[in-house]
Design brief:
The protein is mainly alpha-helical and 179 residues long. The chain has four helices and three strands. Helix 1 packs antiparallel against helix 2. Belongs to the PAM17 family.
Length: 179
């Protein structure tokens, strides 16, 4: 993958293989290419998932330590059942909080790139909103494919997402014509 970062003032292009722009090399007048943005977006998602696993395990272990000693009885349920529910609840909470913490850590490490990424993020969401299908035609046998574009991590994934949206649109309009 080539990284293209353009400087607005001189319109020069620099390329380097397999590297995303580092926060130290980015100045206020530069623009991220779509390939760079999508690779950064994929790396952010990996950060979020990488922090989710240890936080879920830690929360589950903390829940096990607490509920293993303090087995509460609630509404006549067996204390062991309540301890298991407590452990599952703390693990679930860790699973929900993990991506938030991962995202915040990622944001701290990429502070200089944030304005460029946020601009591209707004533009990306405009593209997604413009090209996604109407969810009112979905059913259990015909769900909307990746409505928010969360799985898009490259230009290839984006093109595939567009094809999936078009395929769904055709399938939904064909079903509406037969009713």
């Amino acid at each position: 993958m080539l990284v293209n970062v353009r400087n607005n003032s001189s319109n020069s292009t620099t390329s380097s293989a397999h590297k995303t722009p580092s926060p130290e090399t980015v100045s206020a007048g530069e623009i991220l290419s779509w390939c760079d943005y999508l690779s950064i977006r994929g790396k952010k998602r990996r950060w979020e998932m990488a922090t989710t696993i240890p936080i879920t395990v830690t929360a589950g272990a903390a829940g096990a330590a607490y509920f293993g000693v303090n087995m509460p009885q609630f509404m006549g349920l067996d204390p062991l059942v309540m301890a298991i529910l407590g452990i599952l609840g703390t693990s679930g909470l860790g699973y929900l909080v993990g991506p938030i913490i991962g995202s915040q850590i990622w944001r701290l490490t990429h502070r200089k790139l944030l304005p460029l990424i946020e601009d591209k993020e707004r533009e990306f969401h405009k593209h997604i909103k413009r090209n996604r299908v109407d969810p009112s035609t979905q059913s259990t046998s015909n769900p909307v494919p990746d409505f928010y574009g969360e799985k898009i991590g490259s230009m290839k994934d984006y093109r595939q997402w567009l094809r999936d949206q078009a395929r769904y649109r055709r399938k939904a309009s064909w079903g509406a014509a037969t009713k």
